[in-house]
């Protein structure tokens, strides 16, 4: 359900209400359920909210790449042997992905120089 809520928020043209999210999800999902999901996502820092009268307007906290990274960290956090999971993950990377990871770990921007860096 969290992924569906996040997808709906990513398709929103601007910060939106929980009722807007509920409408986009369709089905018989209760408003209180949508609010619970949004609140949990807020606690996980996956969404932000701003007051609008007595309600909140919701926005995804990151782009699609950031949300994918958040999901990856959650999976990693749920594993008892993080070292083994990371080892398995890295050993299965494509050559290109490995180069990107190496550049990131070396402090370089794999896409080129970062702004302000020469």
Automatic annotation (TrEMBL):
Annotated keywords: DNA-binding, Transcription, Transcription regulation
One Gene Ontology term of the molecular function aspect: DNA binding
Keyword field contains DNA-binding: yes
Entry-linked InterPro entries: BlaI_family (IPR005650), WH-like_DNA-bd_sf (IPR036388), WH_DNA-bd_sf (IPR036390)
A Pfam family hit: Penicillinase_R
Top-level taxon: Bacteria
UniProt xrefs under Gene3D superfamilies: Winged helix-like DNA-binding domain superfamily/Winged helix DNA-binding domain
Gene Ontology biological process: negative regulation of DNA-templated transcription
Keyword Signal assigned: no
Record family assignment: Belongs to the BlaI transcriptional regulatory family.
Protein's UniProt name: BlaI/MecI/CopY family transcriptional regulator
């Amino acid at each position: 359900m969290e992924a569906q809520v996040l997808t709906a928020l990513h398709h929103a043209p601007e910060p939106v209400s929980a009722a807007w999210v509920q409408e986009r999800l369709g089905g018989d999902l209760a408003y209180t359920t949508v609010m619970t999901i949004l609140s949990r996502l807020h606690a996980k820092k996956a969404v932000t909210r701003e007051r609008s009268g007595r309600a909140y307007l919701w926005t995804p906290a990151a782009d699609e790449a950031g949300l994918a990274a958040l999901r990856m960290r959650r999976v990693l956090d749920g594993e008892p042997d993080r070292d083994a999971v990371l080892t398995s993950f890295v050993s299965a990377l494509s050559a290109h992905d490995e180069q990107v990871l190496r550049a990131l770990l070396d402090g370089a921007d794999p896409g080129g120089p970062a702004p302000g860096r020469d």
